[in-house]
Amino acid sequence: MTSNNKKHIKASITAVGGYLPEDSISNKDLEAMVDTNDEWIRARTGIKKRRVLKEKGKGTSYLAVNAANNLIARKKIDPTTIDLVIVATITPDFHCASTAPSVASAINAINAYAYDISAACSGFLFGMSSASSFIESGRYKKILLIGADMMSSIVDYTDRSTSILFGDGAGAVLVEPSTNGYGWEDEYLRSDGIGAEWLKVKSGGSLFPVSSETLNNKWHFITQDGKTVFKYAVSEMANATEQIMIRNKLKSDDIKYLLPHQANKRIIDATAEKINLDKKKVLMNIEQYGNTTAATIPLLMYDYEDNFKEGDKLIIAAFGAGLTWGAAYLTWAYN
Ligand code: COA
What we know:
Elements: E1 11-19, E2 24-26, H1 27-31, H2 38-45, E3 49-51, H3 60-75, E4 84-88, H4 99-106, E5 113-117, H5 123-137, E6 143-150, E7 168-177, E8 184-191, E9 199-201, H6 212-216, E10 222-224, H7 226-247, E11 257-260, H8 265-274, H9 286-289, H10 296-304, E12 313-320, E13 324-331
Parallel strand pairs: 4-5, 4-6, 11-12
Antiparallel strand pairs: 1-7, 2-3, 6-7, 8-13, 9-10, 12-13
The structure holds coenzyme A (COA).
């Protein structure tokens, strides 16, 4: 039998879960920490507060495990039937060992193998590319993809250019073969190392291992050239979204919702404007959570799940450090 005769398997998201830590840092709280103010932050970013995991001894795996357990309880699945656990994160518990195996063990996914992927704010989108490919190839049948980041662990709360933006959280999706023809339709993914300088944690890797010099220079914190990142994010997120629409002959009216990475409300607005999308179709939760990096898009799915109906055409768009960015088109698979 040639591959042409094989039945095409489509991958679909069949369940979602989420977790946000209880503690939060409001704009008012930040006013006491850095030279900023609530009005400026709301006007320039759309953020009012961000959730943070303050308890000592808990890291990104704690967020990921809670999101995964939330999904498992809601979907009532047996975790031992999961084949693969992928955790998208740039704030792993440790640089070595990876976080996903700890998560898989903690949720009793004892028959799964597990690994992390690192693509910053595009982590969930890139993770969906891997998960959907494994399903489409027929290799695996049940994949748990979790976007989780504890950004508070790499944010310098004396730096007003980053501390106002980031928060902690985790979102999870289950990816399985579609039973109704709906699911992952197309993706347009890109990266460009030219922008590595503009958004990064400089030390802790092999180039600048932790030393007294790196600590004194605060290279263990995330730093960015906000203006440059902003410009690239606006043009590339909009461009990727346009590309995916053209390729799939989608008009703005065809799209039920846009699920954009939640970095800055102005970036989101500009993307929506470029594709001429009604504001009501643009999903946001940035006001309450800030930028939770790999978690923003699955958390949107978690928060807005009740709005989605089988067959709805959704667009995902993301942009992040690397640089990494892209967009994807999916049809929602369940009510
Ligand atoms: N509070 C108050 N004032 C601030 C401020 C803050 N936190 N940060 C900057 N300012 C001031 C600046 O000093 C400047 O003042 P001036 O006009 O008197 O010189 C003014 O506000 C504008 O600063 P600018 O840096 O141009 O602000 P901006 O509009 O670019 O907003 C970011 C800054 C960081 C919010 C914005 O660039 C951004 O969101 N960038 C993208 C970051 C991002 O998304 N990163 C993650 C990618 S996934």
